[in-house]
Structures are given as structure tokens and as C-alpha cells.
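Dear Dr. K.,

Following up on our conversation at the group meeting, I've run the structure prediction for Glycosyltransferase from Triticum urartu. I'm pasting the input sequence below exactly as I used it, so you can double-check it against your construct before we proceed with anything downstream. Let me know if the numbering doesn't match what you have in your notebook.
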Amino acid sequence: MASTKHVLLFPFPAQGHLGAFMSLAELLHRAIPSAAVTLVSTPRNVAALSATAPPWLAFHSLPFNPADHGLPTHAESADALPVGFPLVTLFEAFEALQPAFDGYVASMAKDDSVVSIVSALFVAWAASVARRNGCSHAFFASCGAFGTAILRSLWENVPLSVTPTGHVPVPGFPGKIFHKTQVSEVMLRADGEDRASAFCHRQIAHSHATDGVLINTVEEFEPTGLGMLRSSLRVPVWPIGPLIRVAGARPAASADKVHDGMVSWLDTQPPASVLYVSFGSQNSIRQAQMAVLAMALEHAGRPFIWAIRPPVGLAVATSEWLPEGFEKRARDENRGLVIRGWAPQVTILAHRSTGAFLSHCGWNSVLESLVHGVPLLGWPLAADQFCNVEMLEKECGVCVEVARGSTEDAAPPEIDRVAELGETARR
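The predicted C-alpha cells came back this morning:
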């Protein structure tokens, strides 16, 4: 009997990662329609993803109780964590899934299947599981090549060397020097023995068992980053992007009203006039920064859509931390929409009325914006976002950094610059 090809996808449970892996599943199905594709995760993630998944995509749920790992009840994904909750707790919790995943892979390998595993970098231990069970393995990096290469180098070399002028050289890449404000607080505090350092070092050790790296980028867009990544790894690196979500896709039927109302509002706006503001599903800014940003939006006088999360330190999305009357004025003047929770980002970026995107510059947001021809105003907050803005502004010329970070001493957004760029986007 002929062997069956079976691809197991194991993403890290963050909204951007899950979406990228769903896009990867579609790519695999188009390329190898005869192969079985199964996405592996925990019960709540499987339930959410399978509700809108195509019939050819299978799912396997690994037993998981968040409370057993110090996570809030029902928190099985990064976007379900309160703002500011240590993400390393979720990283460590997913390491505990290794025995269950190992058993599942072993059972698959016995069924006359040729099993290949594709996992996220944060689930690098899956490479060791693959090796033990005679399966091939590849990482799928949903971040860009430049950011992946930089962050891997920095985590391999914590504690970091910071010069008296605040600059951070990147080991292995002469000439690549960042300022400490472009490095996350978690990494700056890392001493090599802390939880985040220990987790990253464990994943780097597991990563040597992989057969290759798939990355959501394009050779022509990131030649420098891909060259850096290839020079630092001992396995092939294949750019397979851009993989982005489809305009109009909705997470659930309950979002229809938000989606349709927003599209109707966009239809009333002039071409390239709307500034879209979003800092992703995991990040937020401080209350004082949020107030300054609201002032900047009013000062710019341009239509906007702001997909908002509670500010750092607050758990409830009320309007108390916005300037008095801000939302009412925007609504009454038909000048802006403030949306709490899910927003149809790709639909917004694909609309003719959207002229610019004020973004944290997470990689999925970067690709979604550029694929639809929308320039970026960068406000990086964490992780690879600082690297992305550095590359997009200095190498690609498609982004302008207007603010950086969410710490108490971080500079607020430049109000006049946001206003000027809003006018440029309109033209």
C-alpha cells in the first residue's frame, strides 16, 4: 500500500501566527492536494479555527488546562492574555505539550504515513519530536527575515552589550547597530539566567534538529535579511510569502455588523483619505500616549479608524482614558470610528479610501499594508517590530517612524508630523 503524505502544522497561539499558519495550510493544499494537512493546537484554538476552516483541513487538539500553568482561565492564546501579562508564561506552558504531541506523532508515523512537521519558532521543541520519530521538520517563521536574524543573534548573546551612548551592537552582523530604545524591555533586562533567556536558549538548542526554514517574505523585498539569516543558519531558508489573509474574512458571524458598518463608512470617504490606526492583537500603549495620539488625530483633521485595546495597565476598554468628548466629536462630525476588539484589518487596508496605516509594524500587518499599497507610519512596541521599522524606513522607504515604545519615558508621537503625514496620505 502506498504511503500517505501527512503534514502537521503546529503554530504558536498568537493571532498573527495562527492566521499565517492557516494561510500556509492553504498554500500546501494548493501545491500538494493529495496530502493530508492537520493543524495541531489546544482545545479553544482548535474550536475557533475549525469553525471557519475549509473541509480539507483537519485539526488535532492536545489536552491543555491554562490554570495548571499559571495562566488566566481560558487563556490559550496570546491575545487572550491581559495587556502586560508575561508572555513567557504561555511559552513555557506550551512546552508542557511536548509529551502529548510526541505520542500523537508516534501514532501517525506508525500508520504508514510520511509525516512532515512544520512548527513555529516558539515551538522549536517540535523539531526534536520530529527527529525522534523519523519525520522531516521545517520551521515557519511568520516574522520577516531581518527581524528573525537580529532577534536570534541578540537572544543568543544576552546579557546584551550596551555602549555608553545607548547603542547595542548585533553579534555576527558587523555594521548592524541598534539603539537600546529599539530593544524590548524583556531583552534589555535579560541576564542569560532569567525565564525568557532560558526559554529562548532551549528553543535555539532544539532548532538545530530542523531540516529547513520557511519564511513569510519575498526574496526581492528582503535580500539583506535573507542573506543575514542564511549566513547564520546551517539549513536552507525558503521565502514563501507573502502569505496574507483574504479581504472580507471574518472570525465569526457576530462580527458581521462591525464589518459591514465599517465598510459602509469607508465608502463615504474620499480616496486615500483615511488613516487606519492599530497596534495589533497583543500590544497597546500607555494611557498618556493614547491621549496624545487622540489629540494628534484631532489635530490632523483627517478621517480615521482606530482599532483600540485597553492601555497598558488597564484591563477594561472604557473611554475614560481618551480625551473628554473625543469619540462623540469624531462620530458627530463623521470623521472617525473607534473600534474595540476585532477589526477587519485586511478589508480596511484593501479599501480605496485608506491612505495610511499607523501601526506597531508586526510582520503580518506590514505585509498586509504593503500588498495593498498603503504606506506605514511606524510605532514599534516590542519584539521584531523595532527591526521591521528600521528596515522599512531605512532600506525600503515605505515607512516613517513617528514614535517608539510604550515605556513611561518613551517619547509621545509627534503630533505635527502625524498631521503632515495624514495630509500626504490624502494627496
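Two things stood out to me. Residues 253-422 form a domain with the Rossmann fold fold (CATH 3.40.50.2000). The chain has a mean pLDDT of 86.

Best regards,
J.T.
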